[in-house]
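Progress against Task 2.4 (sequence-to-structure conversion) is shown through the following example record, which the project officer requested during the mid-term review.
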Amino acid sequence: MLWTIELLVALLISGLAILAAVWPLLKKGPTPAWVEDDQLLDLLHRKEQVLLAIKDLEFDYRVGKLSEEDYRSYDQQLRRQAIALLAQIEKVAPESAQLDASLEQEILQRRKVRDKIGSAVDRNAKGLAHTSKTSNSVEDEQQRPRLYCTQCGHPLDPHYRFCAMCGAPVESVAAVKRS
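Structure tokens generated for the chain above:
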């Protein structure tokens, strides 16, 4: 009697192990891209560094740290590096390009929905604000300097709680004033 219980427990455990091994093969959808190549990891890391450098360069230009000539020169160099890295990544892992393209499409669709909702809310808020504003407050608002996010340099409206570009909370990010 005792050996039958042990046999049933052993069969149950082995059945669960087999199910755990076979489960990913039975799931529908795209297979995850396993990154085992050191060269691919290095290329992805370098690509992220170049993209961050482009973002930093744009911020420095927006806050006035760079002249337009320097900005254009550095921007062209960084973008050429990014394009070369993307081409190398596509050679090493061609399926990653398809995954990136599908991800970008999904992000674009979600942003369109978010923008439609945001623009409808903004129109309602502007309509309400327009009826309650006097001419003096409109002039005061036009004379006030614009605020920019210190994370990405994107212009901020006073009623935003998060930066529309990078998502950083406006309350915790000290905004940069620029005339």
